[in-house]
């Protein structure tokens, strides 16, 4: 009996290898490969006067030392701008090896390849770079004001200015009973996956082929780009993402310098070359996110209904903008969240600074957006003497308003139109779960004792599952197992499990019989990548379609074999049965065999196939009937016309310890809705992991830049990722509002848990302390300063 | 993050260590648990021509022992072993209390007690506990052995007074007296981190009076012990203790860093000190 696996708490099949240390990551491969190390800029802004590599050449075991002068053709040009945009007037990307100007501390200057990493680092240390220091700009406001130029040949530091409006904000503000103005400042942070980046490249001169193992979220893109750079046919270039130890966005960026240089060195030297990023390199060489400054004007009526919202924000894109304007566009489009804004205008400036480049990090511009919007709600309530929960209720988009058009563009270039949701019900469930009356009473009692307890709430909408497309190829193998592959790669989310669930359901085979391969261009060359909480939605439907097409093929074959109509067939327990006649069935394995006439009876089952072929010849038939092909396999793609929008709301009861000024989270409740749930266990894991990362973003993880552009906490001693001990117990509730935009009714969930947490914690602390908190992350030091301001 | 080249030595006896250090001088560095030294080498914050690995010394005790009225801790006693030791909990409870705040199990199972004391991080727990107890280390070399009391062991952050050819084969801690009460408190951003501020306290109940002493961590110095004016038991809960501790905190010279300003650290020192001394007093009076 095969039960339906969709919706079941199926255990993650990848966990056995990942949790017992037998996963295979890029660094587990190529033990005999030569290894690369890099010389990176000491300064945030400088011109290279001279590079003296002679010290490195003298080190025994060094195989190659390279600077920009050694690169030719495409390799010597700037790396590609991944996502162009019509308003991105002054885009900048970096060179694989810096040519003359260095624009952030960490920018790659030279590469050393040696017989091992130790020697490579010794040699890298022996390279002398003579710098001419240039003025540095780190602060966003200085960058748009009178501060120095990030790029000395640019007119200013503004890469792009984008603005859109729904309704008419000026008119609405002019007539609004109350107009307020506030400023908010989410700060710079970083994804920090457990595994850094890694590249292992094998160029085969005889075959003129290139095989690259890359800890990337987007192997298909890397493959296409490398093929172009190397001027090789796609067929000659393959990219594989083996096990990847977390990505969170930082690995979706395509063409970090090392990704180009390591394969290049492999061809140059005619030997396999490998590079595994260490944590120090990750801090200064892998992209970051989150830094923005918002100025908000809001017009409201006496009940707190938002009549107009006007947001102007500066987005820190770091020294380069390889990922275009995706992050600020998402911030702008998702800022309204679950609230009905009839008049909404945003204007943002994407600003260059002499810091590590910026590209999406889990949440991708949304934690900032939600922080701003949810602080606005709290401010409005405070100004008008209202309950902020009521203000939220009054502004929610109602369930009968879907599809709901936010009125501004989405990151894919289309309109931002929500597909479905029920925000008021979700909110009510949240308040019921936290026990609002009891929580408020608890708070009042605590306050009476002099304790500082606050309630924080935050709501978000998350656009997920965008295109362009993903594909899936599925075959039934002669042993009856099913082999499925998709182009996007996995970073531990559980894709192997959920894709197998979808395929197993469709073909009526037990889960164990389905194997799933991700991120291997040798299996499927077309695909996009893992980002934007899109894999379950987009690749999930590609799997569904391929499985269905395979099922149709199989059914046609079975109907001939069993001599019944296709409609009378049931797929179950790895076989095709005649409905109502369970003993009349044929296993999938057998069907694969009979579809594949053989000359050689290599084994017992293969005899049948060989006999079939002989029988066909005896009748002077083609063994493989016209229009058919051997084996059972299907390749299908899914391309959604628009994304799908999940949502959720979090509440926390927090306390500030008066003695230590530290944050304590007393209760934490999550309600979230990602449409129909394929696997609740995995969704729980995604949401809880997201929450932990969100708590990092709220109270721990912040990249501290000095005014000179140096990261002052570039290690796990000082960049504080919360441990399990810092994550509170969580109460988690799922709602399932199916998406009408796709057959499974699913929406993405990968980023959801992270998004509202900074807003929730800031709201809770603001409530506990009775002060406005308008930047994140916070810290005990800041709470101390708020409670005990320096005497003037 | 790979270290610069070094020669590796694996002596089998204390005498061999003496020999190697005499030979190699300032080029040599002792390697114990490696939990502080190896990261320093990997990040190339320092480089040494020779590492002398203590981990293969024969016959070294794995656990602390009592000799007379002292607790003796050998150079290969791991922090985990000391934390699990009933002897330590009974004879030097403040060391057990401190160890609970030192890092995480993986690090404690490798890191040594002596290594932490000699490493001399001002934010580390064990140096404060050792200072509070007025412990000492035995420095040895081919020239002989000499005791170094905690008060003279550290000259500053990550600096100790061992000569180039010296190393330590024993930490000695006076065992508690019957009327001693101890407590340890700290504040760190995350559980197991080095302290932003911490305090170790001893209260000795004698002749109807309480004599308290405190040692801080994360507050700049190393090895300082502040003896408070003797006070009556009632004063522990009154303003007397606060003013005594305010004086002690005034002697500290904490710095500002990314995680805490000096002003915040002083606040923590006072707040943690109050509850820490009170808890120690309760224990002393029990
Ligand atoms: C992630 C992490 C978190 C940590 N958190 C904390 C914490 O919260 N609190 C804390 O106190 N520590 C912490 N530590 C440090 C840890 O406690 C170290 O183990 C300890 O400080 C050093 O002990 P070790 O045996 O590892 O010494 P090693 O690293 O081997 O050596 C440290 C220094 O002591 C010298 N040395 C060691 N033994 C001798 C000897 N017998 N004679 C002479 N010199 C010697 C070495 O030459 C070296 O200079 C942490 C470490 C890590 C990696």
Structure in words:
The complex is a heterodimer of chains A (792) and B (286). Chain A is of the alpha+beta class and 792 residues long. Chain A folds into three domains: 33-134 and 197-244 and 251-285, Aldehyde oxidase/xanthine dehydrogenase, a/b hammerhead (Aldehyde Oxidoreductase, domain 3, Alpha-Beta Complex); 292-466 and 641-786, 2-Layer Sandwich (Aldehyde Oxidoreductase, domain 4); 467-595 and 631-638, Aldehyde Oxidoreductase, domain 4 (2-Layer Sandwich), CATH 3.30.365. In chain A, strands 3-5-1-12-9-10-11 form a seven-stranded mixed β-sheet, with helices on both faces. Chain A is globular, with a radius of gyration of 28 Å. Chain B has ten helices and 15 strands. In chain B, the strands form four sheets. Chain B has a five-stranded antiparallel β-sheet with strand order 4-5-10-6-7. In chain B, a hairpin with a 2-residue loop joins strand 8 (154-156) and strand 9 (159-160). In chain B, helix 5 (93-99) packs antiparallel against helix 8 (125-132). Chain B is globular and about 60 Å long. Chain B starts with 6 loop residues before the first strand and ends with a helix. The mean pLDDT of chain B is 96. The chains are: A alpha+beta (792), B alpha+beta (286). The interface between A and B is medium-sized, with 31 and 26 residues. Bound molecules: flavin-adenine dinucleotide. Flavin-adenine dinucleotide binds at residues 29-37, 75, 102-103, 107, 111-112, 114-116, 118-119, 124-126, 167-168, 192-194 of chain B. Flavin-adenine dinucleotide binds next to strand 2, helix 7, helix 8 and strand 10 of chain B. Chain B: It comes from Candidatus Dormiibacter inghamiae.
């Amino acid at each position: 009996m095969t039960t339906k696996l969709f919706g079941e708490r199926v255990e993650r099949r990848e966990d056995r290898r990942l949790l017992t240390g037998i996963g295979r990551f890029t660094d587990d491969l190529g033990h005999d490969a030569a290894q690369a190390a890099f010389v990176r800029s000491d300064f945030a802004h400088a011109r290279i006067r001279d590079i003296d590599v002679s010290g490195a050449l003298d080190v025994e075991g060094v195989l190659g030392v390279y600077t920009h002068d050694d690169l030719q053709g495409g390799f010597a040009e700037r790396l590609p701008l991944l996502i162009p945009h019509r308003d991105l007037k002054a885009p900048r990307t970096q060179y694989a090896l810096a040519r003359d100007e260095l624009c952030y501390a960490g920018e790659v200057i030279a590469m050393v390849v040696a017989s091992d990493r130790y020697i490579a680092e010794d040699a890298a240390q022996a390279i002398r770079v003579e710098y001419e220091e240039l003025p540095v700009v780190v602060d966003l406001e200085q960058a748009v004001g009178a501060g120095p130029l990030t790029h000395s040949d640019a007119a200013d530091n503004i890469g792009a200015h984008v603005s859109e409006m729904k309704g008419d904000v000026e008119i609405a503000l002019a007539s609004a009973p109350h107009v307020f103005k506030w400023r908010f400042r989410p700060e710079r942070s970083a994804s920090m996956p457990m595994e850094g980046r890694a590249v292992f490249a094998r160029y085969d001169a005889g075959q003129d082929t290139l095989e690259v193992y890359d800890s990337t979220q987007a192997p298909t893109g890397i493959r296409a780009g490398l093929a172009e750079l190397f001027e090789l046919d796609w067929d000659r270039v393959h990219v594989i993402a083996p096990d990847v130890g977390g990505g969170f966005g930082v690995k979706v960026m395509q063409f970090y310098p090392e990704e180009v240089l390591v394969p290049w060195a492999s061809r140059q030297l005619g030997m396999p070359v490998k590079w595994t990023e260490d944590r120090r390199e990750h801090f200064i060489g892998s992209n970051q996110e989150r830094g923005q400054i918002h100025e908000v004007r809001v017009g409201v009526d006496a009940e707190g209904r938002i009549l107009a919202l006007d947001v102007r924000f500066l987005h820190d894109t770091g020294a380069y903008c390889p990922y275009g304007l995706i992050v600020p566009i998402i911030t702008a489009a998702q800022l309204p969240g679950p609230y009905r804004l009839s008049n909404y205008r945003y204007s943002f400036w994407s600003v260059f600074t002499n810091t590590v480049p910026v590209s999406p990090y889990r949440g991708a511009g949304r934690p900032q957006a939600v922080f701003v919007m949810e602080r606005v709600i709290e401010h409005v309530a405070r100004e008008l003497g209202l309950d902020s929960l009521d203000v939220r209720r009054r502004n929610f988009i109602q369930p009968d308003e879907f599809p709901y058009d936010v009125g501004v563009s989405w990151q894919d270039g289309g309109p931002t139109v929500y597909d479905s949701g029920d925000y008021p019900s979700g909110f009510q469930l949240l308040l019921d779960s936290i026990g609002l009356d009891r929580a408020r009473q608890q708070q009042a009692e605590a306050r009476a004792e002099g304790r500082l307890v606050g309630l924080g709430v935050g709501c978000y909408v998350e656009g997920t599952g965008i295109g362009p497309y993903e594909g899936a190829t599925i075959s039934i193998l002669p042993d009856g197992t099913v082999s499925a592959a998709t182009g996007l790669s996995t970073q531990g989310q559980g894709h192997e499990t959920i894709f197998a669930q979808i395929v197993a359901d469709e073909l009526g085979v037990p889960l164990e019989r389905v194997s799933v391969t991700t991120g291997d261009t040798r299996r499927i060359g077309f695909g996009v990548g893992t980002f934007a909480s899109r894999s379950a939605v987009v690749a999930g439907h590609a799997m569904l379609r391929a499985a269905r097409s395979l099922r149709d093929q199989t059914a046609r074959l079975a109907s001939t074999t069993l001599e019944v109509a296709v409609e009378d067939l049931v797929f179950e327990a790895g076989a095709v049965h005649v409905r109502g006649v369970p003993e009349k069935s044929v296993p999938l394995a057998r069907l694969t065999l009979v579809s594949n006439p053989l000359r050689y009876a290599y084994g017992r089952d293969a005899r049948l196939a060989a006999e079939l072929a002989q029988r066909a010849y005896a009748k002077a038939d083609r063994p493989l009937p016209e229009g058919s092909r051997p084996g059972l396999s299907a390749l299908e793609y899914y391309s959604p016309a628009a994304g799908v929008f999940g949502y959720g709301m979090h509440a926390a009861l927090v306390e500030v310890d008066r003695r230590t000024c530290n944050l304590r989270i007393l209760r934490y409740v999550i309600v979230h809705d990602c449409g129909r749930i394929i696997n609740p266990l995995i969704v729980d894991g995604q949401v809880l992991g997201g929450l932990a990362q969100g708590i990092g973003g709220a109270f721990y993880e912040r990249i501290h830049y000095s005014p000179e552009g140096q990261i002052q906490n570039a290690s796990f001693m000082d960049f504080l990722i919360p441990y399990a001990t810092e994550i509170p117990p969580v109460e988690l509730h799922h709602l399932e509002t199916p998406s009408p935009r796709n057959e499974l009714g699913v929406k993405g969930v990968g980023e959801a848990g992270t998004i509202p947490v900074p807003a929730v914690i800031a709201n809770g602390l603001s409530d506990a302390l009775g002060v406005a908190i308008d930047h994140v992350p916070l810290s005990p030091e800041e709470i101390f300063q708020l409670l005990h301001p320096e005497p003037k | 993050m790979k270290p610069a080249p070094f020669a590796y030595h694996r002596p089998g006896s204390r005498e061999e260590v003496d020999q190697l250090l005499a030979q190699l001088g300032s080029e040599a560095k002792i390697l114990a648990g490696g939990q502080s030294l190896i990261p320093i080498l990997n990040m190339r914050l320092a480089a040494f021509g020779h590492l002398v690995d203590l981990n293969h010394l024969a016959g070294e005790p794995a656990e602390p022992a009592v000799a007379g009225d002292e607790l003796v801790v050998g150079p290969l006693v791991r922090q985990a072993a000391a934390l699990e030791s009933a002897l330590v909990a009974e004879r030097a409870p403040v060391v057990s209390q401190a160890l609970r705040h030192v890092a995480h199990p993986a690090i404690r199972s490798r890191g040594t007690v002596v290594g932490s004391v000699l490493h001399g991080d001002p934010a580390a727990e064990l140096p404060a506990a050792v200072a509070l107890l007025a412990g000492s280390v035995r420095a040895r070399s081919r020239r002989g052995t000499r005791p170094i009391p905690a008060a003279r062991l550290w000259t500053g952050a990550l600096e100790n007074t061992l000569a180039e050819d010296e190393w330590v084969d024993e930490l000695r801690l006076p065992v508690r007296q019957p009327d001693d009460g101890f407590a340890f408190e700290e504040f760190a951003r995350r559980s197991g981190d080095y302290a932003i501020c911490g305090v170790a306290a001893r209260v000795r109940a004698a002749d109807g009076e309480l004599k308290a002493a405190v040692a801080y961590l994360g507050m700049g110095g190393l090895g300082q012990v502040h003896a408070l004016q003797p006070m009556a038991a009632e004063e522990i809960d009154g303003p007397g203790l606060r003013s005594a501790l305010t004086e002690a905190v005034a002697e500290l010279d904490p710095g500002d860093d990314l995680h805490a300003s000096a002003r915040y650290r002083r606040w923590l020192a006072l707040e943690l000190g109050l509850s820490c001394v009170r808890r120690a007093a309760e224990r002393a009076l029990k």
